[in-house]
Amino acid sequence: MSTFPHLRQDFTASLVVFLVALPLCVGVAVASGVPAELGLITGIVGGLVTGVLRGSSLQVSGPAAGLTVLVFEAVREFGLPLLGVIVLATGVLQLLMGALRLGRWFRAISVSVVEGMLAGIGLVLIAGQLYSVLGAKAPASGPGKIAGLPGALIDAASSTRALASLAVGAGTIAVLVLWKHLPRAVRTVPGPLAAVGLATLAGVVLGLPVATVEVKGLLGSVQPPSLSAFGELADPGLLGTIVAFTLIASAESLFSAAAVDRLHDGPRTQYNRELMAQGAGNAVCGLLGALPMTAVIVRSAANVQAGARTKVSRVLHGVWLLLFAALLPSVLAYLPIPALAGVLVYSGAKLVPVRPLVALWREHRGEALILLVTAVSIVAISMFEGVLIGLALAVLKTAWEASHVRLEVIDKGAGPVQAYLSGNATFLRLPKILDSLEALPQDRPVQLDLAGLHHLDHACRTALENWAERHSAAGTEPVRLASGG
């Protein structure tokens, strides 16, 4: 016991995390358009590989709802055989970034962009999974999913099968919403497990005509990428997808680590090591042709709240997932797909920060705007482009705020008009600077002192020199520039 002083607490916590992870692993796989077993494999690797490595001691990794949309798009565009190549390349990039100590730079990404990213993912996830709740096929694009929902709902009203599917999905969501209000003794069973368990029981007992998970067997689902598949790495579209996987998986994992650190008093996350641990896990998942992994805040929070003290709990949760996949795979065939979709609709809703957004709009309108634009861009265009638009907006906002410039004019009525520029003169503030300078009298000598400028970019310097040349009226002494920037 001296080697594992907290084994009892970690053992109990591992069972709780396993029960939370099981329906999520299966649900994320089904929603991603891949065999359910691949979600379990990623959960197992998250426990047995990433769980053993150093980085964040209480954070739990596995397939994440946040990557569902991206995986679904990648599988649809490139096919399931190439998923392993994408995930393996993502893992190698994460290992490289960790080795180059780039993990801490993810902490510099605007929180609004990350929250906007998660909100956009949440909206697309909700829209897509509502079709699964209705037993219908979802359109391919984000706007198409949202626009088609009313029609899908009307069509469902005339179908017994669709209504049964809707009842199971809606019942699952209702259980998840109400679970936190039940007595503590009942809540020892994790909400997602209870919701899916009750839906499965209802489906079996009542003989409901709802779709269930297709079972292929653990070994039958493993699809290591072939050597020929690596030739596709020359495709720019595939490389863009790999970059998107890497950025989003890394950002989600490291932001989750920061959130988990706030939940406990144990050792803090070592960001570069954690990035390498995630990379090692994704590399193994890629070799097995499984789903990509990230750290998952739902499982991590459950781990901390269940009393976990060391990384033993997350390793054991991987053992329990492996035992389930090896010994009880036939159980998966009873799980109703609308119930798993209901779990993901609930998870997607938690990714949309409605209350924090209202508070952010009151206090930091610019940040709230970045969040909204990022989320809408992800829904309207795609994940990768949406994140890039958010990052570009965040950089522009920072540049705008950093470029404070002040023009002070002293006119004593006689002699030259003296103007002093101070602060940071960048192209972003150029219209304001020129408007103020062009308002100065043209029939008086003007002295413009630039000594108070901390920074003067090339665009501003050129514009100021051109203004100085043309400002003075004929017969008036030319503008004098006292340079100091």
Short description:
The protein contains 19 helices and six strands.
Produce the secondary structure layout.
Elements: H1 7-31, H2 36-50, E1 61-62, H3 68-78, H4 83-99, H5 111-133, H6 142-156, H7 160-179, H8 191-206, H9 218-221, H10 236-261, H11 271-287, E2 294-295, H12 297-305, H13 312-327, H14 337-351, H15 354-363, H16 365-380, H17 383-402, E3 405-410, E4 417-425, H18 430-438, E5 446-456, H19 458-471, E6 480-482
Helix pairs in contact: 1-2, 1-8, 1-12, 1-13, 1-14, 2-11, 2-13, 4-10, 4-11, 5-6, 5-14, 5-16, 5-17, 7-8, 7-14, 10-11, 10-12, 15-16, 16-17, 18-19
Organism: Streptomyces gibsoniae
InterPro entries: SLC26A/SulP_dom, SLC26A/SulP_fam
Subcellular location: Membrane
Strand order of the largest sheet: 3-4-5-6
Order of helices and strands: HHEHHHHHHHHHEHHHHHHEEHEHE
- The count of strands amounts to 6
Q: Uncertain segments of ≥5 residues (pLDDT<50)?
A: none
Count of DSSP helices? 19
How would you state the average pLDDT, rounded? 86
Multimer state? single chain
Globally, the shape reads elongated
Proportion of strand residues: 5-15%
Number of domains: 2
**How many angstroms separate the termini?**
67 Å
Coarse structural class? alpha/beta
Largest sheet: 4 strands, mixed
* Helix percent band: 55-70%
Indicate the radius of gyration in whole angstroms.
28 Å
